[in-house]
Every structure is written in structure tokens, then in C-alpha cells.
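Q: What would this chain look like folded?
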Amino acid sequence: MVRTRATIMDIARELGLSKTTVSSALSGSGRISDEKRELIQEAADRLGYVTNRAARSLRVNRIGAIGLHIPPVARSLAFYMDFAFGVTEGAAAADYDVTLFARGLTPRMAFQVDGVIAIDPAPGEPLVAALLANGIPTVSVGRYNGPGEERVQGTLEAHHAELQTQVLDHLLARGRRCPALLAIDDAIGSSWAVDTRRNYMEWCLRNGLEPRVHEVAANASPRDLIAAITQAVDIGGADALVCGAQGQAAQSQIVLESRGFSLGKDLDVVSFAGAAALETGNPLISSIDLAPRAYGKAATELLDAIIQEPDAPPVHRWFEGASVHLAS
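A: My prediction, written as C-alpha cells:
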């Protein structure tokens, strides 16, 4: 005989509970204790219950997918790839598929998603503005400034100012009085890039230091990065390089050591967005680990909460998973 798939009624009979209680527990809704929810999930797994997503979507008027928008200019950076993996992990746990918006805004574009995560949106980004105008629940990772910003239902940020100040103070404690910032240029225009530059400038002002800012594209070629390092060190006399873009601190180390500089002795190098192993695990580089996978998962959890409670007021959350690694 062919074994039929278990139903909610089968689970309810097995546990002596109501169908409503079982259904609420499996859908993640309702006021049910963690112990009872876990008991119901264990019975569902044991009996072979499989959620019928199509039927559930019809009942709750949902599509079962969330969208992810990453600035096109930043998609080559490992941080955003890892962030996307974190989003997919969080989405799978909440029973969503993920759609990456790979194109810019097009005429009559349809948004077949229940909500969207937009990371580092540029001010006035047309696609984000259109999402908000269409009433799509949206979480901005980093602040969004532009048309419809009052409709952003969730904002998630790391403690960038505090983390960056901690690293810069470490440079000062090591006697570095001429740190230069290799700042991400205006191509991205995200709140993170803007805040990073402002944090550095204000820190210099507080400590009586002359700001030394050199713009570098986030995906700069080796030649352009070498030119910026030459300008900062050979011409500007910098005794430390503070790199805004992920990976540029590790590349700077290679360039400086090839010229005979000793990191930690002649110069210090800092990454404000440390690349795993190359920078966050490097004892010669001070770095901020933004924990992109955990960041992406946290963004998905915030979006899911907003989708579940569409009438709730806008939410701002701080991501607490980032950490600082200081060179010895």
C-alpha cells in the first residue's frame, strides 16, 4: 500500500491537540510556548508532514518569496556574496525562496515577492523607490534616503561609528598621527560609505589630526590602488592606511611589503570591512569583521517579522554580530 502524506489532523490526533493549535505552531504564528511548538514540530517530522506551500500561500495571500537588491557596482565584492548566502539561509528557515533583482527598474516591472531586503541602497535608488511606492514591505540594511523613505518598514544597521572609532583609537595608541583613509568613491553612495568618511573626519578633528582622504573605487584595479597608496604614503607621508573597501587592506599589505615596508613597524594597515582570513585573520592588519552571513540572516528575520505584522510601526534594529580584530 502507498503511504499517504501526514496531515495536520494526523498530528493533532497524535498529540491530542486541536487542529488550530497544530496549524499555528507549524506556520510560526499564534501564542504557543516554545516547548509545545517544539513538540509539534517533532511529531510533524516523525510522521512525515510536509508543508503545502501553494495551499498556504493562497490562504494567507502570500507568494512565498522575498527579494534581495544589491547595488550593481558592489556585486563583485565578497561581502555581498556572503550577505546573500546569509539571506538565503534565513529565508529557507522561514520558508521563503529568494529572488535577486539583477536588473535595474524597467517599465511595468512586476514585483512577485512578499517583501524585499535592500542592502546599502544609494540615495534615491529607482528600484527601491518603486518598491516602496508599490507598498512592498522593505528592509533597508543601512539607511535609505530618497523618495518613499518614510515607507521603509525596517532598518538594520551595525554599530559602524563605534567599531571604526575603536580601530582608529588603536592606531593612535600605537603612535600613528598621520593615518590616511582610502575612501570608497561616490559610485556606491550608500549610507555606509558616507558615514565612514564622516566618522574618519570627525575622529581626526577630535584628535587634532589632519584628515587625509584618497578616493578609491570599491572594485579598483591593482594599478588604481597602487596609485592611491603611492599618493597616500610616498607623497602624503601617511603612517597608516585605513581601507574602506573589503580586500584592499590585504592588497595594500602586498604592495607595501614589496616596497620594503614592515607592517606594524613602518606602517599600520586597517580594514573597515575585513575579508575573512585575508584580513580578519591577519595578525598584521586591524580589521572589522561585519559577519556578512549573520548580517544577511538577521535582515531576513527582520523582514519576516514585518511581513507577519504588516500594520506594525517601522522598526530599527542594531546588528550586534560585528566585531573588531586589532593587530598586535
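The longest strand covers residues 179-184.
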